[in-house]
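ok new one. same drill as before - structure tokens go in, u give me an amino acid for every spot. 143 of them this time. try not to just spam alanines like last time pls lmao
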């Protein structure tokens, strides 16, 4: 089966392995993840946080995430948060303030943007642009 071999949270190799081979090399790598049926297919250099595999280059700074919204969208979001301070939108904005970075391909990031769409604070077209525009050098989170 096709496996991603992870060391220090980064895929360092992709190999076609049998179950016995996985058992034998398990001590060499921090994780061995079956990727046979994953789409898109993870590649060397992708990161693994213990749960989610992420393509490199989709992590951006918190400021970059904020700047992906238009002024009108930000005003709508902030107005909504001010009138609903204990709601899910407020929680999403709080998460943004405590995050180290934003991974545009994480399922919780995508779900959070979809919440904004559901509340009419961002259009679905804009959500696609926010999530799928490749980060610029200035936006990239470099750790």
């Amino acid at each position: 089966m096709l496996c991603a071999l992870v060391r220090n949270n980064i895929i360092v190799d992709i190999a076609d392995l049998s179950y016995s081979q996985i058992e034998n090399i398990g001590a060499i790598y921090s994780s061995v993840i079956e990727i046979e049926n994953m789409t898109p297919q993870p590649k060397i250099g992708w990161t693994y946080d213990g749960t989610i595999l992420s393509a490199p280059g989709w992590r951006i700074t918190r400021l970059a995430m904020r700047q992906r919204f238009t002024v009108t969208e930000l005003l709508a979001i902030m107005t909504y948060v001010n009138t609903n301070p204990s709601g899910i939108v407020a929680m999403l904005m709080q998460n943004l303030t405590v995050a180290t970075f934003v991974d545009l391909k994480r399922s919780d990031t995508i779900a959070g943007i979809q919440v904004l769409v559901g509340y009419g604070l961002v259009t679905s077209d804009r959500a696609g642009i926010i999530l799928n525009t490749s980060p610029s050098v200035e936006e990239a989170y470099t750790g």
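The helical segments are 19-25, 62-67, 71-83, 88-98, 107-118, 124-132. and btw The first strand starts at residue 2 and ends at 7.
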